[in-house]
Amino acid sequence: MRAVLDESVASTPAGDGAALVCGRVSRLAAEWACAVPVVGRDRDWILVAERLLKAAVDAEHEAADRERLAGG
User: Fold this and answer.
1) Buried b vs exposed e over 48-65: b needs ≥16 C-beta within 10 Å?
2) Are the C-beta atoms of residues 69 and 18 closer than 8 Å to each other?
3) Radius of gyration of the chain from Cα atoms?
4) Measured distance CA(53)–CA(24) in Å, rounded
5) Alpha carbons 59 and 29: distance in angstroms, whole number
6) For residue 8, with 0-12 CB atoms within 10 Å meaning exposed, 13-18 middle and 19 or more buried, which class applies?
7) How far apart are CA 6 and CA 14, in angstroms?
8) Rounded to an integer, what distance in angstroms lies between the CA atom of residue 36 and that of residue 17?
9) Exposed, middle or buried: residue 37 (CB in 10 Å: 0-12, 13-18, 19+)?
10) Interhelix angle for 2-10 vs 16-35, to 10°?
11) pTM reported for the whole predicted model
């Protein structure tokens, strides 16, 4: 997943566009993770789900930092 996010962001101009692409890819990955039946949730699924959670937390922290820097 990280490779997909990195590649998507790298191919997008800097600024909010990169964040939108990253968010879109993350949402698609989250939809995939939810769609996997419980019996199919193996070690690889767990690793991807953990990365999705970490990416969500990191995105929240980055948004809060941007808002704080903007004076909001």
Assistant:
1) bbebbeebeeeeeeeeee
2) no
3) 14
4) 15
5) 15
6) middle
7) 13
8) 29
9) exposed
10) 150
11) 0.57
Return the structure tokens found at 58.
């990191």
Nearby residues of 22 by Cβ (< 8 Å), 6 or more positions away = 5, 8, 9, 55, 59
Cβ-based neighbour number of residue 22 at 10 Å: 20
* Helix ranges restricted to H, 11-71: 16-35, 43-69
pLDDT per residue as tens digits for the range 36-46: 999 999 999 99
10-36 confidence digits (pLDDT tens): 554 555 555 666 677 778 888 888 899
